[in-house]
UniProtKB/TrEMBL annotation:
A GO cellular component annotation in the UniProt record: plasma membrane
Domain annotation Amino acid transporter transmembrane: ranges: 29-422
Organism: Nicotiana attenuata
Name of the protein in its database record: Lysine histidine transporter-like 2
Predominant localisation class: membrane
Localisation: Cell membrane
Length: 439
């Protein structure tokens, strides 16, 4: 009996040692404003720059409705996730897939949540590789307009060098300084985008459909839905962020987390809506898929905004990469029985950054990638998966307000998932026709 007890104690100590090594559970000393920083960094990124372009693909009526409806739905679903983090006394769902396993079962939960979450986080890191490279290239072109053109591939490689270094930081709290800088800069370049756009108002613009072909306009509309979905991607890391906040019976983590999320969502609305609406109002259907590429004067300010984008997506990349590192390292030490070590961590993270670099250099189609992945992967995890889990676990009264609200979100989210990847894929195929690889 004593031997069995010793074995049990030893197993617990081993599991505790592993949890103290893994990126998500190794440090639970975060404050509420860490949640604000990480959520702003996760959400206000490449997505905000494409919103005027998405508006130009949808038009005023549909565009305004989709923007506001997306904000409301994702605000509601992120509240649900914060509430569900500790809904079982004495248990914390530190990872999205753990919540999924509780709702759907051990095996089914993994198969439902993990593939979607990995696709979201990996695709976001790839898109940020492209965004960082393009912004660096734009910065160089503004400052040195007469210089010999340099391939985009090289700029993406320069951006990746920062990720190869920062990816070896151990956990979420260790990237809090990077995340803080990224959050501040994201608000700054969003403000630059819409204020400089206002300076260029007064020109003759058209709000007509971008193409004369109806089929093209339909595909662009569907792609735009994916772009908007991509802009609201914070749900994929919200439980992992909440896991870093301490929790007691009197002060559960959801109090501090919700305070941080609420602040973050107010900031998000102050960034997204002015950029989307003012950018489209000023440039109409002539806006680029990244509004900073449309702006020209004052050159020093546009150059500064592009560098701010680079600095921000350096931090955003880390926020999305950390849960991936946690998944891979958890599998390596718990399932494959590798010893937790620095060598394991270096190998895993270096390979991941290298993978996102190669894919980013191969298919650097900013708008198409966001449209495709926004609908294919981000819509499920942000728009309706939290609602399905809520219905299974909370079991609200049938046809009551909570039941109806969740089903409405599920219907909207499923339609988004089924339709927007078609538009994103169309956009990628169209761009690929004239694209030369690694140029």
């Amino acid at each position: 009996m004593e031997k069995g007890g010793n074995n049990e104690d030893k197993r617990r100590e081993e599991e505790k040692a592993i949890d103290e090594w893994l990126p998500i559970t190794s440090d639970r000393n975060a404050k509420w404003w860490y949640s604000t920083m990480h959520n702003v960094t996760a959400m206000v990124g490449a997505g905000v720059l494409s919103l005027p372009y998405a508006m130009s693909q949808m038009g005023w009526g549909a565009g305004v409705m989709v923007m506001l409806l997306s904000w409301i739905i994702t605000f509601y679903t992120i509240w649900q996730m914060v509430e569900m983090h500790e809904m079982i006394p004495g248990k914390r769902f530190d990872r999205y897939h753990e919540l999924g396993q509780y709702a759907f079962g051990e095996k089914l939960g993994l198969w439902i949540v993990v593939p979607q979450q990995i696709i979201v986080e990996v695709s976001t890191c790839i898109i940020y590789m492209v965004t960082g490279g393009k912004s660096l290239k734009k910065f160089q072109e503004i400052l040195f307009p007469n210089a010999k053109p340099i391939k985009l591939t090289y700029f993406i490689m320069i951006f990746s060098s920062f990720q190869f270094i920062l990816s070896h930081l151990p956990n979420f709290n260790s990237i809090s300084s990077v995340s803080f800088v990224a959050a501040i800069l994201s608000m700054t370049y969003s403000a630059i985008a819409w204020t400089v756009s206002l300076k260029e108002s007064g020109r003759e613009v058209s709000y007509d459909p971008r193409s004369e072909k109806t089929s093209d306009n339909v595909f662009m509309f569907l792609s735009a839905l994916g772009n908007v979905a991509f802009a609201y991607a914070g749900h994929n890391v919200v439980l992992e962020i909440q896991a870093t906040i301490p929790s007691t019976e009197d002060e559960p983590s959801k109090k501090a987390m919700w305070k941080g999320v609420l602040t973050a969502y107010i900031i998000v609305s102050l960034c997204y809506l002015p950029v989307a609406f003012i950018g489209y109002w000023v440039f109409g259907n002539g806006v680029d898929d990244n509004i900073l590429l449309t702006l020209h004067r004052p050159t020093w300010l546009i150059a500064t905004a592009n560098i701010f984008v680079v600095a921000h997506v350096i931090g955003s990349y880390q926020v999305y990469a950390m849960p991936v590192f946690d998944m891979i390292e958890t599998y390596a030490v718990k399932s494959l029985k590798y010893k937790p070590s620095t060598i394991l961590r270096v190998c895993v993270r270096t390979v991941f950054v290298a993978f996102t670099l190669v894919v980013g250099m191969t298919i650097p189609f900013f708008g198409g990638l966001m449209g495709f992945f926004g609908g294919f992967a981000l819509a499920p995890t942000s728009y309706y998966l939290p609602c399905i889990i809520w219905l299974i676990i909370k079991k609200p009264r049938r046809f009551g307000l909570s039941w109806c609200t969740n089903w409405l979100c599920i219907i909207v989210g499923v339609l988004l998932t089924l339709t927007s990847p078609i538009g994103g894929l169309w956009s990628i195929i169209k761009s690929a026709k004239t694209y030369r690889f690694y140029t």
